[in-house]
Amino acid sequence: MEYKNVREGRFVARRNRFVAEVELDGAILPVHVKNTGRLRELFLPGARVVLSKSDAPGRATAYDLIAVWREGRLFHVDSQAPNRLFAEWLRAGGLGAVENVRPEVRYGGSRLDFSFTLGGKACLAEVKGVTLCRDGGFYFPDAPTDRGIRHLGELARAVEEGYACYAVFVAQAEGAKFVSPNPDRPEFAAALRAAAAAGVRPIAFDCRVEPGRVIPRGEIPVIL
């Protein structure tokens, strides 16, 4: 996936979940943060950030903050992108020859990210973007997620009904060694292990991140 009208600036501060202040061309501007996670390890004063100028009329902010440089590596922070990246990875053969790929499908009391057919079997997938990196490993989530826990329960129930189900983790930087549940969020870790024991398959892949482009790469281990 690609972004248009890309610029680089310097992170100043985060006003709230949706707006940050960035220095661009000597001026301090409000920009839209496309991720409501905490991202404290990335949003540091003075950090180089990548912005994409929006052409949508009537916006309060002219730019979206889409990526952050940290220790020489670019981390993609657009939380709307992992679903698109998974769709690209899936259609490129990440799981094999899939058919009937559909986004945003109703199952039980939830709306899950994808349904598709693989080897004649109906499949469901829920996708999570991962930006929290420690010593080369990527960890999810960085904040409590009742919604994520509920979706894992839905996937486990779907397995009982005959679906093949996947919990998908998109490491939003290159060179991730593995993805694992965040030990600081034991409720999600327990839910993921329970879902895996019920037959939900956790999978992950990393991405090549450039200032104006993000490319899905190969599958990496999920360590429970």
- Tally of individual helices: 3
CATH class of the largest domain: Alpha Beta
Helix content range:
10-25%
H-E order:
EEEEEEHEEEEEHEEHEE
Rg over C-alpha atoms, rounded to the nearest angstrom: 18 Å
In what range is the share of β-strand residues?
over 45%
Number of domains: 2
The neighbouring-strand order within the major sheet is: 7-8-9-12-14-15
What general outline do the C-alpha atoms trace? globular
Terminal residue distance? 29 Å
Q: Regions with pLDDT < 50 over 5+ consecutive residues?
A: none
- Find the structural class using helix and strand composition: alpha+beta
Largest sheet: 6 strands, mixed
The overall pLDDT, averaged over residues, is: 95
Q: Give the oligomer, counting copies of the same chain as homo and different chains as hetero.
A: single chain
What is the tally of beta strands?
15
Looking at the structure, the CATH topology of the largest domain is Trna Endonuclease, Chain: A, domain 1
